[in-house]
Design a protein that fits this description.
Layout: H1 11-20, E1 28-32, E2 39-45, E3 48-54, H2 69-83, E4 91-95, E5 105-109, H3 125-142, H4 161-178, H5 184-195, H6 197-200, E6 206-208, E7 217-220, E8 232-235, E9 242-244, H7 264-271, H8 283-307, H9 313-335
Antiparallel strand pairs: 1-2, 2-3, 3-5, 4-5, 6-9, 7-8
Length: about 325
């Protein structure tokens, strides 16, 4: 997808990057256009397939939480590999010196299993149910990784979840103003974050992905993840991670159902192995869920000012997401 934040590299530059990484010279190079923030290039070299991923150019319009975000992605790959059994691409080389290029970049394995969201996977019936339970189990596994402070590491951590939540919201409001937009959803989120701060502060501090979309997951039917059921989920792009409340990731389990009580199968799968099971009938759990869900909508409302122009596909998608997540969740918070 076109975005003003994408670094454009020609084939010669990609070849130089592969050489610097000590990897074979490219035979084929093509742009991977699915993302909305970083640029990514598919490289075929020496009989293997790679992805070269590059952070936005200096001076790009980015959100406060997006500063140095590629470094958080690399940290995520490292800690997830160390602490979980989640399928992840190998990272072959990383350069955060900003000397060869003025931005961070790395080279990783290109996964060959089909993405979960694509029709080519053709998940149906019981196999689809199994795959979605595996995603829920995946989330439960990384939610066991404990942090020592709440929020985005690149923006500074807080001793309380409510403090981190308010800071995230205030940054969205500031970012919108900086880029000539407005943030009405974020302003309403701030009201509820202040109203329910005591409830927010009951949350444990855990690793949160906050971008667990099916287009960031691949499903290999032929591998085994150690469970009794064949198949393994692979995950990419864990760049939006923060330390916070595990319930925030429930947004992405069965994301077509925003209402927490309608996520019955997803929550049942998650609760099977979760350290902190989620009760959709519990008022405090509802509050802890709907606030980050509303913030996700506010984030989409704001990021369109940074990356897109009115009428772009990305602009339209962000407005749709803002309505779907933000307005729906705020309507539920009004009832609580």
């Amino acid at each position: 997808m076109d975005s003003t934040t994408k670094f454009v590299a020609d084939k010669e530059t990609i070849a130089q990057m592969m050489e610097k990484a000590g990897l074979p010279a490219p035979e084929e190079v093509s742009s991977l256009d699915g993302g909305m923030f970083n640029s990514a290039y598919a490289v075929k070299a020496g009989g293997f397939q790679y992805v070269v991923k590059i952070a936005p150019p200096p001076g790009s319009k980015i959100g406060t939480y997006e500063r140095d975000m590629m470094r958080q992605e690399l940290f995520s790959y490292d800690i997830l590999r160390e602490k979980t059994n989640i399928g992840l691409p190998a990272v072959y080389y990383r350069d955060t010196s900003r000397t060869f290029l003025p931005v961070d970049w790395f080279v990783m394995e290109r996964l060959t299993a089909p993405r979960m969201q694509l029709d080519e996977l053709k998940l149906e019936g019981e196999e689809a149910a199994i795959a979605h339970r595996k995603v829920a189990s995946l989330a439960a596994s990384y939610h066991r990784i404990a942090g020592t402070g709440y929020g985005y590491p690149q923006n500074g951590l807080f001793p309380k979840w409510s403090q981190a939540v308010k800071y995230i919201i205030l940054n969205l409001i500031t970012d919108a103003e900086r880029y000539g937009g407005d943030a009405p959803l974020a302003e309403e989120c701030l009201f509820y974050a202040e109203k329910f701060s005591n409830v927010l502060d009951t949350a444990p501090c855990r690793y949160i992905n906050y971008d667990l979309w099916e287009n960031n997951m691949f499903y290999d039917r032929n591998e085994n993840d150690g469970s009794d059921v064949p198949g393994r989920i692979y995950m990419i792009d864990p760049e939006r991670f923060f330390w916070g409340d595990p319930i925030a990731d429930m947004i992405f389990l069965d994301p077509m159902h925003i209402i927490l009580g309608e996520k019955k199968e997803a929550l049942a799968g998650y609760n099977l192995t979760a350290e902190f099971p989620v009760d959709s009938a519990n008022r405090e759990h509802q509050i802890r869920y709907y606030i980050p869900a509303a913030i996700y909508g506010a984030l989409m409302q704001v990021e369109r000012f940074e990356r897109f122009t009115p009428g772009d596909e990305g602009w339209r998608m962000d407005l749709m997401g803002a309505k779907m997540f933000g307005e729906t969740s705020l309507a539920e918070l009004k009832k609580l």
